[in-house]
Design brief:
The chain has about 140 residues and is mainly beta. It has a single domain, classed as Cupredoxins -  blue copper proteins (Immunoglobulin-like, Sandwich), CATH 2.60.40. The chain contains 1 helix and 11 strands. The strands form 3 sheets. A 5-stranded mixed sheet has the order 3-11-10-5-8, with no helix packed on it. Strands 2-1-4-9 form a 4-stranded mixed sheet, with no helix packed on it.
């Protein structure tokens, strides 16, 4: 019967750990700031428009049915003003801290980027997706 007295303690400890996990988020991003990007046909929405410089984890939630990608481009050009050739933006003309590739419909992918201060565009550069509105901007202070 002495073992029974530990059950309430174990239940309380388990509940505390579950709540702590919920408050901190499900992803272990190593202490990096987390930004959620929601991708759909044909839009990208961020839960934050401005973040501090440093390590930033972007969690891309593809709520659409098509495969998408999320490319970060450092530029002062307006989100809808990038030059497009054959349905795609020439990514090589911009400084880029990286991308999250091949995010299948209904899935989530994440990656941590080191972001310097500046203005960034986040785009899907699968043919015609940028032109259909898959773009947004992020300011890094």
């Amino acid at each position: 019967m002495k073992r029974m007295k530990w059950i309430p303690v174990l239940v309380a400890a388990a509940a505390t750990l579950m709540l702590a996990g919920t408050a901190c988020g499900d992803d272990d991003n190593g202490g990096a700031l987390a930004v959620k990007a929601t991708l759909k046909e044909w839009s990208i929405a961020l839960n934050k428009a401005t973040v501090p410089a440093g390590q930033v984890t972007i969690r891309a939630d593809n709520q659409g049915t098509s495969e998408h990608e999320l490319i970060l481009l450092k530029t002062d050009i307006a989100p809808d003003k990038l030059h497009v050739d054959a349905g795609k933006v020439d990514e090589k003309q911009f400084e880029s801290p990286g991308e999250i590739e091949a995010i299948k419909g209904g899935t989530v992918a994440s990656r941590t980027f080191k972001l310097d201060p500046g203005h960034y565009l986040l785009i899907c550069n699968i043919a015609a997706h940028y032109e259909q509105g898959m773009r947004t901007e992020l300011t890094v202070q």
